[in-house]
Amino acid sequence: MAPPANRRSGFSRRAQYTTFFSYTAGVLGAVLGLGLLAISLTNHDAFGPFRTIAADVTEPAAEAGAKTRVAGKGLVATVSGFFRTGTQQARLQRELDEAKSRLVQAQAIETENRRLKALLGLRDDNPGPVTYARLTASTGGSTRRFATLGAGRDRGVVKGMPVRSATGLVGRVLEVGASTSRVLLITDTESLVPVRRARDGVPAFAQGHGDGTIRIRLVNLGINPLRKGDVMATSGSGGLYRPGTPIAVVTELLRDGAIARVISNPSDTDYVLVEKAWALAEPPPLSSEPQAK
Length: 293
What we know:
Blueprint: H1 13-42, H2 48-57, H3 59-83, H4 85-120, E1 131-138, E2 146-149, E3 162-164, E4 169-176, E5 181-185, E6 192-197, E7 203-208, E8 213-218, E9 231-234, E10 246-254, E11 257-262, E12 271-274
Antiparallel strand pairs: 1-2, 1-12, 2-5, 3-4, 3-12, 4-5, 6-7, 6-9, 7-8, 8-11, 9-10, 10-11
């Protein structure tokens, strides 16, 4: 009589060993996964070297993906702009006229500042950026907000350096690899930047909201002086960020502050520049002799 085809594993020692090792591997894998999860929750920097190595290995693919993304956005913008040329041209003309007026005012203020610095014997030295690089990737669907920068130790990038674009502050370097870096964006909940209102210097703190916006928290509580449309810029307090860098525009008022929209959106930012920390930059020297009149 032929043996049944669906015998239990008890009839075969090899089948018993296979079942035993399968369950053992499953239990060990679950325990290992729980252990790694606990380590990542208690020590955020434990897997930093592994993240930087993985980013360095995938840098060429990320660079190609970033170029494709930028090209695709440009194509969509070209097609959509073809149908909205008339209204956009009229709006841009109005904004250009307003910008010309503000430019004249800014030039007058700059001239006055140069005159006052000359009288005080001050010299404003700008050490310049450390390097320029492309943002190859950024998180968009998570409460944590990071970006990958296509520059690392090979270009002199150091942990803690501010990262900004042509329009405003993006974040600061959190981890540095051989050829890539991890950037903590200003929209992350762990990001806290000292800021002030650009037009009158009202002090506040800009904290990431985790949803792509920023929460503005006033230093002096009382009557909220903020208004919709106010531009917030870095104050320079703490010595990390250069003062006067634009960061966000107020869109919604709260009792003790406001919600603001970031000026430099990482998803729309291609190239950025990395700067030295403001406290590490060489301070402008004071002249020991009075200026000749």
